[in-house]
Structures are given as C-alpha cells and as structure tokens.
C-alpha cells in the first residue's frame, strides 16, 4: 500500500510547524495537520515545559512514544514531530508504516534565531544559560540520528516556503 501521510522531523526551530501547516493547506481539505507535542499535552493535561519540570525527560519520551503510535495510524495527515522523536527507534519504525519521513534541515544560526523568536520558554532542553551552545551541542549528537531516520532530506536554507513545500510534495505523494 502506498503511504499517504508525511512526518516532518528535524531539530527545534527548523520550521516543521510552519511548513507543516502550509503543506496541509496546500494539499486540500481532506488533509489534516497534527503535532506530536500537542497530542502529548492533551494526554498529560499540561505543557511540555511542565512535563519536563515535574516528571522529567524520561516521562516525556514515554508520552512521545504513545503520541507517535497514535499519529502513525492516521491517514492523509501531516505530522509535525517534536525534535526528539527520532531518539527512540520505535517511533521512526511506527511512523514509517504510513508516512514518508521528511527531514527539514537548517543551520544552527537559523535555528537559534527561530527558537529565540518563537519563545525559548517552551523549549526546556535549550532554555539554559547559553542556548546557542546548547543547540550546537545537541545538534552534534543528533545530526546522524536525523539522517538515519530520514527517507527524504530537505535543506531549507535560503529557500522560500513555497519551494520547500513543492519539493516535499514532489518527493513524497507525487513520487511514482
Ligand atoms: C524537543 C523538541 C520539542 C519538544 C520538546 C523536546 C527535542 O519540539 O518536543 O521540547 O528533544 O528536540 P519542537 O521540535 O517542535 O520544538
């Protein structure tokens, strides 16, 4: 069976949510948009930051496994995945069943700017004394993990959103 959903993966601040929403609009009314972080906050009844603070990262990752399992069963859905979804292989295995796994890449500078603009308070992993250093440190650890999980890699640097979206559609749903 051909896949009909798309899971956007990549580091915080690469534009998964922005691109995901635009992509969904572009695909028409029968496509839906969801975020794994939103499924998690619904299940936990509290924000991502509060889960990290009160229950710890390990508990957050358990919620994330459950969210990915739910998301992986949805048809015609654009799934914006939290940046750490790839840390548990089971998430990638589950999502791959019905979704093309698309990695969005950006430079550490672009990521830093976006994370600071969107509000760092909602990103507990980099909400530290030196966020830039934290971003670079985590990126170094995760770069290969993202590449291994991805079926399609899209470099977003200096590309307009429309170009990025067309590239995603061409390499996934329109692939023959
Ligand atoms: C995380 C990324 C966040 C969120 C949580 C952990 C990560 O999602 O899931 O703060 O480990 O990279 P975004 O990538 O949507 O910011």
Describe the 3D structure.
This protein has a five-stranded parallel beta sheet with strand order 2-3-1-4-5, sandwiched between helices. By secondary structure, the chain is of the alpha/beta class. The chain has one domain (5-160): Rossmann fold (3-Layer(aba) Sandwich), CATH 3.40.50.300. The two termini are 13 Å apart. Helix 3 packs across helix 4 (57-71). The chain has eight helices and five strands. Helices cover 53% and strands 14% of the residues. It is globular. The protein binds shikimate-3-phosphate. Shikimate-3-phosphate binds next to loops.
Quick structural overview:
By secondary structure, the protein is α/β, with parallel strands linked by helices. The chain contains eight helices and five strands.
């Amino acid at each position: 069976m051909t896949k009909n959903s798309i899971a956007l993966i990549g580091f915080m601040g690469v534009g998964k949510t922005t691109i995901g929403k635009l992509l969904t609009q572009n695909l028409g009314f029968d496509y839906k948009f969801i975020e794994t972080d939103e499924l998690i906050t619904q299940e936990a009844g509290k924000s991502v930051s509060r889960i990290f603070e009160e229950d710890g990262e390990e508990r957050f990752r358990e919620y994330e496994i459950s969210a990915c399992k739910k998301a992986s069963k949805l048809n015609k859905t654009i799934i914006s995945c939290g940046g750490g979804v790839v840390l548990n292989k089971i998430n990638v295995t589950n999502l791959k069943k019905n979704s093309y796994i698309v990695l969005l890449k950006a430079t550490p500078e672009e990521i830093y700017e976006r994370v600071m603009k969107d509000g760092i308070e909602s990103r507990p992993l980099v909400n530290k004394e030196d966020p830039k250093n934290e971003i670079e440190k985590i990126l170094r650890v995760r770069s290969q993990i993202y590449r291994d999980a991805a079926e399609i890699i899209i470099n977003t640097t200096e590309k307009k959103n429309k170009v990025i979206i067309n590239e995603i559609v061409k390499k996934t749903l329109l692939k023959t």
